[in-house]
Design brief:
about 140 residues, mainly alpha, 4 helices
Length: about 140
């Protein structure tokens, strides 16, 4: 599970870097959207640092953040978001980088959740008695 946590931290950090870059290079001047990008970047960096060592709920928070960012991306390309809209994959390449990182975050979270739900198989040596068998049973 540590590999999933590290990969998720890397994906969240990538999204944060992309949002921070866009904030610094012009989005800071867009009302509501600029603030949202700054918050997205800050929370992403914090989660990226804490996911590998922190409690389980940080992975859920990262998935929620990534899912919200994907929804905001879709809204900004369709009906608009707080009066802001863009088309296609602009600004390039950051739109694609962010979407890939966020989809990856949600996908890794799903792998994590499925891994928790799957029963663990315990392999026994055929010559040793199982816990359910009385000692000396053959």
């Amino acid at each position: 599970m540590i590999v999933i946590r590290l990969a998720m931290a890397l994906a969240v950090a990538t999204s944060g870097i992309s949002h921070a870059y866009l904030y610094v290079h012009g989005y800071q001047h867009i009302p509501m959207i600029g603030t949202a990008f700054l918050v997205q970047a800050g929370v992403s960096f914090a989660l990226a640092l804490l996911i590998p060592i922190g409690p389980w709920w940080l992975r859920w928070a990262a998935a929620a953040l990534a899912g919200g960012a994907l929804i905001a991306f879709a809204l900004s390309r369709t009906v608009g978001l707080f009066g802001f809209s863009e088309t296609g994959w602009q600004p390039s390449p950051h739109a694609a980088i962010s979407v890939i990182a966020e989809v990856l975050t949600v996908g890794l979270w799903a792998v994590y959740v499925v891994g928790l739900r799957r029963p663990r198989q315990i392999f026994h040596n055929r010559n040793e008695p199982h816990a359910s068998e009385p000692a000396g049973a053959v």
